[in-house]
Amino acid sequence: MRLLLVEDDDMIAETVVDFMRRAGYAIDHAADGRAADLSLANDVYDLVLLDLGLPKRDGIEVLNTYRRAGGVAPVIIITARDAVDERIRGLDAGADDYLMKPFDIDELAARVRALLRRRTGQKQPVYTHGELSLDPASHEATKAGVALPLVPREFALLQALIEEPTRVFRRPELEEKLYGWGEEVGSNTIEVHVHSLRKKIGTDEIMTIRGVGYRLKRLG
């Protein structure tokens, strides 16, 4: 899952980005309204965390533009504006949830999980490939009915592969799915994740296409 945080307070942004990355999300950070517009134009995000009081362009304007352009990712407004009419404006503009500052980071994470469960449930609840099964909503993966003890990045890697099991993923594509902007990614990081995932799901489940990348094994 890829998130976008739109927040001009560096301390809050650092806390949220660090927490979400440790939870296994790829998360990008935009520090003002204009940067948010440019980021959202790419249409690559599964959920947006949006402050309202932003430099260069107000958060409500950013949200209105995003929804008018057809953006459908859930949006959680996180703001210090506590007036009822501000909350109504945000919800009417297309926000899905509203959280007041200062907020508890665990509560924010719970709201993110709830909205992502709702969204993935509307798309495709469970992915299966042979004996492998992955449920994004419950964040559970199994093989032959046995739960797999995957850490967040292993789960994200398996999800990327199982969503498009016939596709060969190049290393930069997998880095983009697993990591946010500015995260340091070692030259062999993806190889390490693939090796670790193979140990848990079976070495034959992931094929290496030499000189290209990785894909799940062919069935049948």
UniProtKB/TrEMBL annotation:
Signal peptide: none annotated. SMART domains: REC, Trans_reg_C. Keywords: Cytoplasm, DNA-binding, Phosphoprotein, Transcription, Transcription regulation, Two-component regulatory system. Gene3D superfamilies: 3.40.50.2300, 6.10.250.690, Winged helix-like DNA-binding domain superfamily/Winged helix DNA-binding domain. The modification 4-aspartylphosphate is found at residue 51. It comes from the Bacteria. GO terms for molecular function: phosphorelay response regulator activity; transcription cis-regulatory region binding. InterPro entries: CheY-like_superfamily, OmpR/PhoB-type_DNA-bd, Sig_transdc_resp-reg_receiver, WalR-like, WH-like_DNA-bd_sf. PROSITE patterns: OMPR_PHOB, RESPONSE_REGULATORY. PANTHER family: REGULATOR OF RPOS, TRANSCRIPTIONAL REGULATORY PROTEIN QSEB. This is Two-component system response regulator QseB. It comes from Caballeronia sordidicola (Burkholderia sordidicola).
